[in-house]
Amino acid sequence: MLVTNRFVVDVDAADEFTGRxxxxxxxxxxRPGYLRGQLVRALDDxxxxxxxxxxxSVGTYRRALGGFDVKITAVPLLAESLDEPSAYEALASAAxxxxxxxxxxxxxxxxxx
Length: 113
Hints:
By secondary structure, this protein is of the alpha+beta class. Helices cover 31% and strands 26% of the residues. Strands 2-3-1-4 form a 4-stranded antiparallel beta sheet.
């Protein structure tokens, strides 16, 4: 499961934002089910940032949000992200040079079409 939280941050507030984002990423990374994460910034507009995390499942992500450190450091930051869908399930993947592999949706009986 992939979670993308997008932010628009004034350039003069970037240092404060990145400090809080690093703390949020560290808190999330300490939770069971966390696979990887990154704080990224748009190349063509430095005001646009995204905190991207990958999780074993929807359940591990939701449980992570209940952790004390996450509630203190990550949840307040995540509440400032753009109001848009942020959690995505993987429906297809491909390794470098590999074939596309479809995955069943948790929302439907079979793979998406």
